[in-house]
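Model the whole thing, not chain by chain.
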Amino acid sequence: MRLRSRLRGLVALAAVIPVVALPASAGATTLFGSGSSAEQPILNVLFKAYNKLHHNVRFNYLPDGGNAGVTDVQAGRRLFSVNTRAPLPSDAGTTYFKLWLDGLCIAVNPQNSVSNLTIAQTKDIFTGVFTNWSQPGGSNLSSTIDPFGRNSSAGLYTFFQQAVLGGATQSSNVAQETSDGLVATNVSKDPNAIGYIGLANSGKGSGVKRLSINGIACSQTEIKSETYPLFRYAWGVYPTNHPSTAVEKFFDWVRKSKQAGQIINRGGAVAAFNNK
Amino acid sequence: MSTAPTPTAGVRPRVRTGSSYRLTDRIGLGLAWFLGLLFCAIAAAIVIYFLIEGIRYLRPSLLVTNPAAAASESQTGGFLDPMLGTFIIAVMSMAIALPVGVALAVWLSEFGRPTALARVAESTIEMMAGEPAVVLALFGLALFELPALGFLSQTTNGVVLGQSFFAAAALLALVGLPMVVASVREGLQAIPSHVREASYALGKSKVATIRRVLLPTARPSVITGTMLGVGRVIGDTAIVLLLLGGTLTFQSANSVPVLGLLRGTGDTLTGYIYYNAPTGDGNQPDKAYAAAFVLMLMVLALNVGVDLVVSRSRKAVRWS
Amino acid sequence: MDEEDFLEQSHGISQDQRAELWLGALVFVVVGVLLAMLAFVTYQAWPSFAHNGLAWFGPGGSIDQQITRIFTSGDLKQTPVYTFHAWPLIWSTILTTVGAISIAFVSSLFIAVFIVEFAPPWLRRVLEPVVRLLASVPSVIYGLAGVLVLVPFINNHLITQSEKASVTPIISLSGAGLLPAVVVLTVMISPIMIAVFVDGLRAVPRGWLEGSLALGVNRWRTFWKVGVRTVRPVLVAGTVLATARALGEAIMLLMVSGGVGFAPNPLDGPTFFFEPFRTLAATIIAFDDERSSPPMKHTLYAIAAVLLFSAAMLSFIGWAAKRPMRRYGVIA
């Protein structure tokens, strides 16, 4: 009886030891990141490629939006983040690092014949001044406009606010989606929809039609030449104090290496600093 | 249902629903029939709908391939890892909830002193049963992001991830615990006191009585409670969403075989369904239907199991 | 075997005391964990309540904008903003919960009476396992059915262009809103109530019903006046259980409610049923990603605290309601 209970105690102890001793058995590092969901398709391919080169480095990325990602880094919950807007004073404690060039497209459902909008018209649609498709003109529809956008945790929303809305907030009838892909999904399903989507999620096969802004198309060539009005950089963010060297090495590889440049171009963005 | 004395032959028998059924009664009866049949129709519609959609979209390849991030639906794979994830959290959370729940039930039913502690314990456990899972999930996040508990998930450069199978299972154990406690307690209280007294009269200690007489008899209620707990655990989405990391496939913390997997992130069927619903990023309703069908089959199997256990225990020992 | 029994017997008393101590310690630990959770949630929620006072529960401004302000003020350079008037969320929660519970209560009562007393035996044998199965179906599956069947149906067939035009640019009607949410929630909580009511009605002593029948009362009246009236505590307990479930439901509502911090306005007429909203529990999940920002974290915990204490109060009501049943010797 006593022996059995002692044995049971020993078995329990033996089970605890591997769990506790695990931190000692390093080997693989997992880099935790979060941030932009618009850049996630490109980032996923970059993570996989980097892991093939450096087998002991893995990534865990949470696409909670660029602004939420920066706050994560500031709070020490994540090692790095990717944001789609330029740094602001509120990002104190973090360092921003340009990764590649990208753009924000305005997209509508393919059933909508409108093909071009000015920035002023886009602003009017997203601030609730235009409520019907007959108002901006160029559309075959005369139904109510269904605008889709992002919420406050998205870096894209902050960029959209600065570049299109002139600092105003989007009107309350803009459906606030939690990720870039969801905006694309909703626009592709609703004939009366319009939304602002990153390049990667609005390409061929996404089910949405990109609009020209001020007559200039939202495509890689126009963004590369910086003629498209809504071009922007994808930034890597890491803490200023004690950044992880693994993260810095990864960001360097993304920005400079030829292989990363190919991945970025294939993903729909523009490799701006990579070696050819 | 009996009315006046049977009328003699030749006189037309009074119809039963004569004066004894007032209008309100007829309305009530009619409403009961109508709503009952409506419920049958809705229940049948739900079951048949998921059956049809599930059979239409479920292919064996879905059960054995892993999900993958890809542009076209034919390349996004199946839900092998999420399915395994559901099994893993069910086993892990019940591995915690079962012994703790049985111990709690035994204490509440056999000991229960001091009474203040017993009442507090009863009310806390009942309160836990009604708690929204989101609140538990929020608490779990704060708990497992503590550096002290970093060994249960992953830590790099001082940053604790806080999301892992351990984290999700710990919180899910809290979800399944009240079911086990309630069921085992009911089973123990159903045993008449003369059984215990007979055991004590033979000189057995309380512990021996519990171990060798009461618990074996209450085994059906232990099994029922476990199955009900598993049913609740595999159906939970909120805790899994927040505490499991939501990676499509298992991402082990390191290469240690089992513990590395449990410290890593993954997904379950419920998370997979939520992700592939139109409101989620995956947006593949076909795969969502298939996964929902598999999940319903699991729930159905658990329910059938509970029914079998309960019906067999009814034919079991009679205490005279 | 005998030796073991002898050992148990001779160490009997101290073994019992030891077992009691260990088990008691375990109970203490479990209760301690749960109470620690209560204390932690309240502590983290305190800044949000302290800054807003009772206005936390009241109306005032667009709640989505308030959430944005709270989140963006979380950095080191600004003083944190806590202004939060949760009335749209509270109102949405009340609407869905009360709406679903009232419909479900009446239907479940009649359906339970039907199942226990009036259904043909073959139907009863089919229905009871079906009720239990439906009660254990995960909420994400109900949400899937709602968003793939109900929401498109409402969007395409029930909402007119003029209704959509009448509410723009405040909100967009897209099919997801109050109507599908209440319908799916009702269907989701009814099986729970039916199962509890059926168990309670079964436990009514048969003799009472037969006595009433022997006195010439018809079958419906007997069951309604004697059976249902006896199990009133069970009705309360079942309702409380279902209310707790409806209150904490987040996943299904996230899928069918439209996700906008808006208080549906009954004065809007038929449009009221299509207006999108977001409940308290759904808000926690929707904004969980923003909890790195300290004021946002405190606000989320404040919402969680409201849910926590509502559920606690509900379970207390349920416990208090079940006690009269024991008096009649009816175990439920």
